Amino acid sequence: MSEHKQDQCGDDCGCGHDHEHEEHVFIVTNDEGEEREMVMVYTFESDDNVYAVLLDRQDPEQDGVIFRIEEEDEEAFLVGIEDDAEWERVTAIYEEIARTENEGKE
User: Fold this and answer.
1) Distance between CA atoms of 73 and 50, rounded to whole angstroms?
2) Rounded distance, CA 43 to CA 83, Å?
3) Among 28, 45, 64, 97, which has the highest number of CB atoms less than 10 A from its own CB?
4) Would you say the pTM of this structure is higher than 0.85?
5) What are residue 40's DSSP bridge partners?
6) CA distance 72 to 94
């Protein structure tokens, strides 16, 4: 049996894995200290910032959580949005994106 190592594969490696749709999984700790596996499902930009929408891997029907993506020394970090005005702006943008995508599926 062969072992699949993603770093050895190219786009046309024939390994059977869909490299374009690899899951980006993050461990997020909530205010109660509970760790949850979250999957990045969408990113968008607003006011020179990039935001990520994550869904709970165990409960994907639950509402998504939005984080700002910040980069430092070529590493990306998810940062909670503390500013109320920023939060209202990005949730309105995401709700519009979600509404538009849902209309396209009907």
Assistant:
1) 17
2) 19
3) 64
4) no
5) 54
6) 25
The secondary structure element, H or E, covering residue 70 is: strand 65-72
> CA 106, CA 104: separation in Å to the nearest integer?
6
CB 66 within 8 A of CB 42: no
Contacts by 84-90, CB closer than 8 A, 24 or more apart: 89/46, 89/47, 90/46, 90/51, 90/66
- CB atoms under 10 Å from CB of 49, counted, come to 15
CA separation (Å) from 106 to 42, 46, 82?
Answer: 20, 27, 35
Which tens digits make up the pLDDT trace of 54-84? 999 888 788 889 999 999 998 888 999 999 9
Residue 62 to residues 12, 38, 54: CA-CA distances in angstroms?
Answer: 35, 11, 10
Q: Length of the chain, please?
A: 106
Q: What 3-state class would DSSP assign to 92?
A: helix
The amino acid occupying position 20 is E
